[in-house]
């Protein structure tokens, strides 16, 4: 398997304009993301221009879930540049409020370089 496609990472209706370098997402593509028989799709039916900022983190989370759904079950394919792993649920207290933190671990892969930060241009190389 080679690395996931634009559509597998960003949704079936994703569009790219090579001249302007603008990527357009159809958020409805994120409405059904089934992992292990459970649908984690994003509901954007109530999204408006007024409340769009409250959806930003939800959209990023849904995109990570979409990648996780479309990737191989195991992480043995060295052609996959970004692999998403479910790191589980943790309890947290933030500003004296008890919460649960759900963790998805995104790991970018590259062949043997030095340093602790990964340049996104190097992923999959």
What are the main properties of this structure?
125 residues; alpha+beta; two-stranded antiparallel sheet; 28% strand
Portion in helices: 10-25%
Instruction: Provide the spatial order of strands within the biggest beta sheet.
Output: 1-2
Portion of residues in beta strands equals 25-35%
From N to C, what is the helix and strand string? HEEEEHEE
Query: Termini, distance in Å?
Result: 15 Å
Discrete helix count:
2
User: Which whole number gives the mean pLDDT?
Assistant: 93
Low-confidence stretches: none
Rg (CA only):
17 Å
Task: Using the alpha-carbon principal axes, give the shape.
Answer: globular
Give the class from helix and strand content and strand pairing.
Answer: alpha+beta
| Major beta-sheet overview | 2 strands, antiparallel
In total, the number of strands is 6
Description:
By secondary structure, this protein is an alpha+beta fold. It is 16% helix and 28% strand. The protein has two helices and six strands, in the order H-E-E-E-E-H-E-E. It has helices at 6-10, 56-70, and strands spanning 15-17, 22-24, 34-35, 38-39, 82-94, 97-108. The strands form three sheets. Strands 1-2 form a two-stranded antiparallel sheet. Strands 3-4 form a two-stranded antiparallel ribbon. Strands 5-6 form a two-stranded antiparallel ribbon. A hairpin with a 2-residue loop joins strand 3 and strand 4 (38-39). The longest helix is centred in the middle third of the chain and has 15 residues, at 56-70. The protein starts with 5 loop residues before the first helix and ends in a 17-residue tail after the last strand. The mean pLDDT is 93.
């Amino acid at each position: 398997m080679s690395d996931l496609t634009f559509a597998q990472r960003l949704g079936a209706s994703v569009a790219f304009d090579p001249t302007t370098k603008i990527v357009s997402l159809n958020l409805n593509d994120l409405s059904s993301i089934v992992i292990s028989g459970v649908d984690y799709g994003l509901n954007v039916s109530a999204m408006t221009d007024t409340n769009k900022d409250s959806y930003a983190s939800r959209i990023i989370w849904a995109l990570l879930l979409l990648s996780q759904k479309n990737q191989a079950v195991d992480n043995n394919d060295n052609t996959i540049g970004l692999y998403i792993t479910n790191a589980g649920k943790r309890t947290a207290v933030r500003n004296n409020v008890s919460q649960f933190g759900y963790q998805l671990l995104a790991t970018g892969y590259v062949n043997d370089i030095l340093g602790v930060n990964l340049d996104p241009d190097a992923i999959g190389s």
